Amino acid sequence: MNTITIKELQSREEFHEAFPIMNQLRTHLDEATYLDLVTEAKEIDMYRLFALYDQEEIVAVTGFKPMITLYYGRFVWVCDLVTDSSQRSNGYGERLLSYVHKWGKENGYESVALSSGLKRIDAHRFYEKRMDYDKVSYVFKKPLGS
């Protein structure tokens, strides 16, 4: 019996259940801010949040949004992808990212793109070697202050 399921999270309660996993990647967010950001991003920015469950327990989550830009055309931007630190190397990240690829293709998108922090060497190896991603650019950020 297959105990792995992938489900789109829709309610604040479901977002709340995913927070302990997401917080391992987004350590700068407290739960209230996370809940507000996910809710707002879903409402105005087409953000989608999916969880991979094993034995009815969330072990990995991804957040992504479909986008259109002149550089990438129609593509899916993976904003967040994280597997519970105690569950890594079990293939969950690969299954969840493959699900995003399938979702994108089924919905008429041409590619999937993401950024990864400079120090996340294991993640880079995963994207390039395991998932066959190309490194095509750097991402730059400038805080605007208040």
Q: If helices are DSSP runs of H or I spanning 4 or more residues, what is the number of helices?
A: 4
Shape: globular
Looking across the biggest beta sheet, what order are the strands in? 1-2-3-4-5
The chain-level mean pLDDT equals 95
Distance between the termini: 54 Å
Task: Give the helices and strands as they follow along the chain.
Answer: EHHEEEHEH
The structural class is: alpha+beta
Strand content: 25-35%
Helical content class? 25-40%
Number of strands: 5
Radius of gyration: 15 Å
Main sheet: strands, sense, barrel? 5 strands, mixed
Q: Which residue ranges are poorly predicted, with pLDDT under 50 across at least 5 consecutive positions?
A: none
Compact overview of the structure:
By secondary structure, the chain is of the alpha+beta class. The longest helix is centred in the first third of the chain and has 15 residues. 20% of the residues are buried.
Topology:
Blueprint: E1 4-9, H1 12-25, H2 31-45, E2 48-54, E3 57-69, E4 73-83, H3 92-106, E5 111-114, H4 121-130
Helix pairs in contact: 1-2
Q: Which properties best describe this structure?
A:
five-stranded mixed β-sheet; 5 strands; 146 residues; alpha+beta; 37% helix; 4 helices
Q: Any overview of this molecule?
A:
This protein has 146 residues and is of the alpha+beta class. 37% of the residues lie in helices and 28% in strands. The protein is built from four helices and five strands, in the order βααβββαβα. The protein is globular, with a radius of gyration of 15 Å. The N and C termini lie far apart (54 Å).
